[in-house]
Every structure is written in C-alpha cells, then in structure tokens.
Amino acid sequence: MKKFLICLSFIIISGGIILLISSTKPFLTKQNTDAVFKQINIISPTLNPTQGETFIAQDLASYFKSQGKQVRLFDSSSYITSPDFDPYAHAVNLFIYAWQDFVPSSHGINVLYLLIPDEGKINYKNFDLIATTSKKQAEDLQQKGLPAVYMPQFSNTARFTRDYNKNLDVPLLFVGNLYDHDKLRPSVKYALENNFDIHVYGHSWDKYIPAKYVKGIFIPNDELHKYYASAQIVLNDHQPKMIANGVISNRVFDVTASEGFLISDYMPEIEAVYHDSIPMYHSSKDFANLISYYAAHPLERAQKAKKAHDITMRYFTLEKIGHQFMEEITKIVHKRLKEKTISFDSPM
Q1: pLDDT tens readout for residues 117-130
Q2: How far are the Cα atoms of 122, 125, 196, 253 from residue 154, in angstroms, in the given order?
Q3: Calpha distance 41→76 (Å, rounded)
Q4: What is the predicted pLDDT for the residue at 100?
Q5: What 8-state DSSP symbol labels residue 335?
Q6: What angle, rounded to 10 degrees, do the helices at 250-257 and 298-315 form?
Q7: What is the largest CA-CA distance in the chain?
Q8: Domains of the chain, CATH where assigned
Q9: What DSSP string runs through 254-266?
Q10: What is the per-residue pLDDT for 6?
C-alpha cells in the first residue's frame, strides 16, 4: 500500500526573512486509520455457551463487525495453537481476562479487558491498553504509568429488553452459580434465613440448598431477559474481590436493561450511578426488610425499575462500551503510526 505521507511547505515572510517549513509526518485521517485497523482477534477465557465471558466476547465481536471490522473469536486455552491465529500478524488482539493469564502477540496491538482484577499474574507491560471494569484499578495502574482506562461491563440491549411472561412471574429470582461451596451467596443465604420463596437457577446449588428452591441449572441467554422482566424481585450479589475493587456485576446491567426490579448487596459504586433506583442491603435484616416492603409495593418497584433502566441505557450498553473500545484502539493506532512502530504498508 502506498504510504499516505504529505509534504507541507509554508513560506513565512517576517521582517524580510523567508522561512521554509516542511513536514513529513503521516497524514492521519479516518480513512487511513481504517486502512490499518481492520482485523480484531478476540481471545476469551472460554467459548462455552453457558459462560458469561462467552457472551461478552460474542457481543463485542458483533459490535466490531457492525463497524466494518474483520473479527475472529478464539478460546484462550487453544488460541496460540490455532491455525487461524497468527502471532506475527498485524492485528488488534483483544484478550478478555477473567481467571487465566495470557501470552500476548509480539506483533500488532494488544488490548487487555479485565473483567475482574487479577492477582498479580499478568505482565501489564505486554499490553498497549489495559481496560478494566474497576475504576480503582484503572487509577492505580495509571499512577504507575501504565495505559489503563475504566471500561465497565455492559448489556446487549438488543437482547435484554422488557418481555413480560406471566408464567415467569415469581416472587423472588436469583440467577447465578455457587462458586464457594463452603459459603452460600448472600442473596440465597438471606432468602433462606428469612423463609422467602426464592427461585434459584445455577450450577451446584442442588447439593447445598433444599431441592424445592432449585428450579434449574441454566437459562439460555436469549431467554434470560424474560425471567428478569417477569420476576417481581430479582436478586444480585457480588464476589468479595468485586466488592473490594468496585466492579459492578453485569447482572445489574442485564436486569435493569430488561426493566426488571433489582435488589443487590451494597456497593457504593452502584449507589453513585443508580442512586435509589436499586435498593441495596447490608445485612440479613436489611434484606428481609427490603423484600417485605417491595413485595407489597408493586408501583414503587415499577418506578425504580424504569429509572434504573434509563440509567443503564445511558451508560452501560454494548454500543456505548464498544464505541469506547474503538476510540481507545484508534488512539493507539495513531500513536503507533507516529512512532513508526506500524505503518500504512502493514495493514492490521
């Protein structure tokens, strides 16, 4: 590809002195940037259709494709040996990190998306951009001179819409897996302690709570919005690591995008954005009071659900976060072009 270079010459006449100024820097335009920013490889911790990380990868892929990009999805456990992955290619490699470490490509642009802050397993210097769902972590990394930005999780609002089904109208709904078998998740624990009729969906619950509360182990992602929109109250809680780092669960975004009424464990980060539209509990007693009150006040539930929905649609949609990724990656492309570590002759 012919290099898009321009030689600019200006004649400046001042006090009888003629100055000739020329520049041979790359002329950066949207067209030229698009010429190098073509291919995006998304490397996900899993492509298992029952795991949330898979849907995040697929949703981002769909957004990038809608912007004219060529996108390939890879499983992190096998991407490096895949015949479709070329570690020497000039491409944007987006690594979605949840639990594993990665070996980034030595060429192209490497972007890390931290869904949950890691435990010191990653060499951040391998990445041109670190997008993290934790504002706290983004600020910490920035103070260390690393290229970090805050990038929350999101909801695909084309999928998560209000679709009420009276057959799914249950008093209390919790959707989520049991991760720590020695410790029940607060939403379920407090519901059982206070004898509420809770409907639980997720892996491993059948061995640790009475079978009458377990309604299934998996809800297809394209059906989940119906459950969220139809339940009278949807419950949410966070893992301790998420609370410590201020990471808001994407369940918050999916439930509210579906106009479901949500009650969550307390996080100041939720309060800062959603204000009083998402009631939150600090203890089992708080939990019981909130459930009892809102079960008896359907109009208030609907009002808060609508308010939370509007906030999600403003800040936490796939389009919003996808656009932010595109902007940040474009900045890196410009920077690398100026540094001549990539060129218009090496399309990405």
Answers
A1: 876 778 898 899 99
A2: 24, 26, 30, 6
A3: 11
A4: 60
A5: H
A6: 110
A7: 93
A8: 30-153+318-339 (3.40.50), 166-315 (3.40.50.2000)
A9: HHHHTT--EEEE-
A10: 39
